[in-house]
Design brief:
The structure holds 2 protein chains of 2 kinds.
Chain A: H1 2-11, E1 14-16, E2 18-19, E3 23-26, H2 28-39, E4 44-51, E5 54-60, E6 67-73, E7 78-80, H3 90-100, E8 103-105, E9 121-122, E10 129-130, E11 148-153, E12 165-171, E13 174-181, H4 189-192, H5 198-205, H6 213-228, H7 234-261, H8 266-287, E14 296-297, E15 300-301, H9 309-331, H10 333-339, H11 347-352, H12 357-361, H13 370-374, H14 393-417, H15 427-433, E16 451-458, E17 463-470, E18 476-482, H16 485-496, H17 504-511, H18 515-519
Parallel strand pairs in A: 2-16, 3-6, 7-8
Antiparallel strand pairs in A: 1-3, 4-5, 5-6, 9-10, 11-12, 12-13, 14-15, 16-17, 17-18
Chain B: H1 2-10, H2 24-32, H3 35-41, E1 45-51, H4 57-64, E2 77-79, E3 88-92, E4 95-96, H5 100-109, E5 115-119, H6 120-125, E6 135-137, E7 147-149, H7 156-172
Parallel strand pairs in B: 1-2, 1-3, 3-5, 5-7
Antiparallel strand pairs in B: 4-6
Helix pairs in contact in B: 2-7
The chains are: A alpha+beta, B alpha/beta.
Bound molecules: iron/sulfur cluster.
């Protein structure tokens, strides 16, 4: 991507003050060239979002993890569609249409996505025109032929699970097409990030997807700290990573059990569920909250770790019990029979969609945001990036299994080398003394004292992207978040094709996409 | 596997002791649950969980109720797949505009007598999501709520207390 980067930088009309990666404003031609480059695989599309009068596209260099944001001013309310040449952009574009009313010219799918005709307004973050709230029927894509029948599931599902609708077209037992309809838990998070305090915004972002609350808080804090140019004490940096690995550990253990349970192997769920519970109890003792919600704040962390003994006891306990569960998984032929070769996600698709986390790494995509772009303290820690090539349910289980060991390893290293010192720097004095950068930019916002931050963090599900614009006092003007699930959901549709309907829960759980993180 | 199963038979159970209940909210609830509930339900309750817009944090802790530490089935609480089999709806999340009808229809599909438990700060009062075009309100703005269990998310033990209270109240009549 480096040649692409140079070309784009040369074509930039203006370069905005955004840390730590540049955001450049380009013309429509350069925007189009960038979409073609993304479609050709020269860069990975990592985010696509809007504000009134402009669209932004985040490009990721898979090799060094560096990011770049392109901005196109859409003063006439239109911009060249990215989804036209690069399908992973389509749902993000539909979201832009629904929330801001900007029109991607040439977009292949113009059905409403998050807007179910229930809000009573159209384009709530754009023109905000009054509209009906009666609900509209959704035209599902067709799969036709004499033997085909449809199965409709959701939005309220049979288990303890988030809501969404799945429409299967099946030929007997075989799934011919799965189409998802999501958006049911859309809470208007981007709207809640407009013109608000840093504290309020941090609380909202911590609740984008509760299972990843640590990763989201970390990404938000890093974006805010980048925008405001404030530093974080070393002890906080290390404890943040400890929290992040505990969160990954808890979720991977839960997922491994839950996937096996969906293959009717309840014993794994019972044992993994116990280990997960033990992680949450240890985090409660260590940081005062089972999920560690709001424990990471801009400037540092909210609660210090006073005694690492319960955490070390936990890792020792898991090291004793977990290998036997792995052995059980590995030696149970009836279980492997369900997971091996089921729900195969092709490496080429995983790459094209920039699939993060275990879903991508189980299909050969060697990307982990802790390695590249990387963020402290991971550069000082010793851990492996786990990768498999098979792309089936089995591979996704194995990536999680191996990552459990890596997280244990990381937790022990962190506890061992934890620096002493303060856990947070107060933000206020730093902001008063900070040199205010002069940023150019959009005419419709008070921008001369604004600064922007971008952060990418590896959650248990994959890379999370947070972008933030603040004024010099730290007041949040605007922000957006992108969950890894945005790119996983369409891949689930592809992975289930040709499998039997009864394997859908298994495939679905092995992806474990967030509904809330997708719907925002 | 045989070794693990055998161990499972002989190891001490990890389950928590039953929580004691002395909550004003639950006492108040007792009045609302009639003799019909006792005749109809005895001490067993079937629960249907409905996510009306949550961040999924509450779901994680509801899930935990089924792990071996809490094991709610021993209190006669079962999570069922259909509202038609349910006595109790456990509802999470601020109710989003897009889920409102789903919640109303699930409520309508649940046979009477039925109780609604709002789980978490969002279900109780929208949490941090109140000021949004996409959120219609707390659960009680959409369907009648019998019990609120606050927290973000409430811990499994808090839910256990609330639910056991609900059963005891229904048994007392
Ligand atoms: S109460 Fe907290 S955990 Fe529960 S849905 Fe709301 S934000 Fe998530």
């Amino acid at each position: 991507m480096s040649t692409l980067r140079t070309a784009l930088l040369n074509a930039a009309l203006t370069v905005e003050e955004q840390k730590p990666w540049p955001r450049i404003t380009v013309d429509a031609d350069t925007w189009r060239q960038a979409t073609l480059a993304v479609a050709a695989g020269n860069a990975t599309l990592s985010g696509l979002w809007a504000e009134p009068g402009a669209v932004h596209m985040a490009l990721l260099d898979d090799d060094d993890g560096s990011l770049m944001v392109l901005t196109l001013l859409a003063s006439d309310g239109r911009f060249p569609s990215v989804g036209l040449t690069h399908p992973p952009a389509q749902r993000l574009e539909r979201k832009i249409v629904d929330l801001y009313g900007l029109i991607p010219e040439g977009m292949p799918d113009d059905r409403r996505w998050l807007d179910h005709d229930r809000w009573g307004v159209r384009a709530p973050l754009g023109s905000s025109a009054p509209a009906s709230a009666d609900g509209a029927t959704y035209p599902f894509l067709k799969a036709e032929g004499p033997p085909l029948h449809q199965i409709a599931v959701g939005p309220v599902h049979a288990g303890i699970i988030e809501p969404g609708h799945f429409r299967f077209s099946a030929n007997g037992e075989i799934v011919v097409r799965l189409e998802e309809r999501l958006g049911y838990v859309h809470k208007g998070i981007e709207g809640l990030l407009i013109n608000t305090t840093l504290e309020a915004a941090a609380k909202v972002v911590a609740r984008v997807s509760g299972d990843s609350t640590v990763a989201y808080s970390l990404a938000f804090a890093r974006a805010a700290e980048a925008a405001l140019g404030v530093a974080v004490p070393q002890r906080a940096v290390w404890l943040r990573a400890l929290m992040a690995e505990l969160e990954r550990l808890a979720n991977h253990l839960g997922d491994i059990g839950a996937i096996c349970n969906d293959a009717a192997f309840a014993l794994m769920l019972a044992h993994c569920g116990m280990l997960r519970e033990e992680v949450l109890r240890a985090t409660k003792i260590a940081f005062g909250h089972r999920l560690m919600m709001d424990c990471i704040v801009p400037g540092g962390i909210a609660t210090d770790l006073h005694d690492a003994a319960p955490i070390l006891a936990l890792t020792m306990h898991i090291r004793q019990r977990f290998p036997r569960l792995v052995e059980l998984y590995d030696n149970t032929a009836s279980l492997q029979n369900r997971t091996v070769s089921t729900g195969r996600l092709l490496p080429e698709l995983a790459r094209r969609f920039g699939a993060g986390g275990p879903v991508g790494r189980a299909s050969g995509r060697a990307f982990d945001a802790r390695k590249a772009p990387g963020y402290p303290p991971y550069g000082d820690l010793d851990f492996k990036m786990i990768k498999r090539e098979d792309g089936d349910v089995d591979a996704r289980i194995w990536v999680r299994i191996d990552e459990v060991y890596e997280s244990l390893e990381l937790i022990e290293q962190i506890v061992d080398r934890l620096p002493a010192g303060p856990i947070a720097y107060p933000l206020a004095p730093a902001l008063r003394e900070r040199k205010v950068p002069q940023a150019g930019g959009l005419a419709n916002e008070p921008r001369d004292s604004a600064s922007e931050g971008l952060a990418m963090v590896e959650g248990f599900r994959g890379d999370i992207l947070v972008w933030l614009r603040t004024d010099e006092t730290g007041h949040v003007l605007r922000g957006t978040v992108r969950d890894p699930s945005v790119f996983h959901w369409p891949l689930l549709e592809a992975a289930i094709e040709g499998n039997i309907v009864a394997d859908f829960p298994l495939c679905n759980k092995s992806f474990n996409c967030s509904y809330s993180g997708h719907d925002l | 596997m045989r070794r693990m199963l055998l161990e499972g038979l002989f190891r001490r159970p990890v389950t928590e002791g039953a929580p004691t209940i002395a909550d004003a909210e639950i006492e108040a609830l007792a009045e609302r649950l009639g003799v019909a509930a006792k005749a109809r339900l005895g001490r067993s309750l079937s629960i249907r969980e409905v996510d009306a817009g949550s961040c999924n944090g509450c779901e994680l802790e509801i899930h935990a109720l089924n792990n071996s530490y809490y094991d709610v089935e021993r209190f006669g609480l079962r999570f069922v797949a259909s509202p038609r089999h349910a006595d109790v709806l456990m509802v999470t999340g601020p109710v989003t505009a897009n889920m409102r009808e789903g919640l109303e229809r699930t409520y309508a599909a649940t046979p009477a007598p039925k109780w609604v438990v709002a789980i978490g700060d969002c279900a109780a009062g929208c949490g941090v999501f109140g000021k949004s075009y996409a959120v219609v309100g707390a659960v009680s703005n959409v369907i009648p709520v019998d019990l609120v269990i606050p927290g973000c998310p409430p811990e499994p033990i808090d839910m256990l207390k609330g639910l056991v209270g609900l059963i005891e109240a229904s048994a007392r009549g």
